[in-house]
């Protein structure tokens, strides 16, 4: 059987400040290919071109990528201000119902950075516009200068619940991660289980409680150096296994029926 298909949620950009494109980081493709053993497929995150119904039938799993644009605060009942940054309403219109559909179907979905925040908002949670402005919190944003390696270097530890879901996947209760985000969870959504936190208390690892499938999400960027970093490799390996299991369960009956 061919490799499972994983939809990578893309982001909207202007190339050379004038030419609109949908784009996704190469490192997401590398992680899915080298670690998850899945076929990556870039998804234009815009309801004018794709529907959630088509996506869940076409793909076996999904990676909700990081992005500069943030989930619009209207999605969780708050008013947009300058502090919330830029938005991508088209992506909101795809990813939020997509998360809910995957949770209901038991279809694997892996949230990364903005994707972590999308999982929380999709389940009814809210976000802080800027973590570093909160009393007692650290600056979790990407360093403004330096090489790519310096920007993605491991900068703080994340403690996960002993005996919890992430403990089982990672084989440890404390791991080192990078950090490149400005926003973070304010209130967790219904069934959102905060399973890992940074030293300042910022939620860093979540999953949807009692979901029938893989719903893990992390606030950091495990796609960086995924084949070599033990934490990233464990996460993409677990997601890959869940996606292979989904494909084996769903595709085989389809093939038998069509034959």
Describe, in plain words, how this protein is organized in 3D.
The structure is a single chain. The protein has 259 residues and is an alpha/beta fold. The chain has one domain (5-258): Class I glutamine amidotransferase (GATase) domain (Rossmann fold). Helices cover 31% and strands 22% of the residues. It contains seven helices and 13 strands. The chain has a nine-stranded mixed sheet, sandwiched between helices. The chain is globular. The model has no long low-confidence stretch (mean pLDDT 94).
Name the features.
259 residues, alpha/beta, Rossmann fold, two-stranded antiparallel sheet
Brief account:
31% of the residues lie in helices and 22% in strands. It contains seven helices and 13 strands.
Question: What topology does this entry show?
Answer:
Elements: E1 5-9, E2 11-15, E3 19-23, H1 26-34, E4 39-43, H2 52-58, E5 61-64, H3 89-105, E6 109-112, H4 114-122, E7 126-128, H5 148-151, E8 156-160, H6 165-170, E9 174-177, E10 184-187, E11 192-197, E12 203-208, E13 217-218, H7 230-258
Parallel strand pairs: 1-4, 1-5, 5-6, 6-13
Antiparallel strand pairs: 2-3, 7-10, 8-9, 8-11, 11-12, 12-13
SS summary, helix count: 7
Count of distinct strands = 13
Could you spell the SSE succession in H and E letters? EEEHEHEHEHEHEHEEEEEH
Specify the overall morphology.
globular
Unreliable stretches:
none
Structural class: alpha/beta
CATH class reads Alpha Beta
**Integer count of domains:** 1
CATH homologous superfamily label: Class I glutamine amidotransferase (GATase) domain
Tell me the span between the first and last alpha carbons: 15 Å
Beta-strand content estimate: 15-25%
Mean of residue pLDDT values? 94
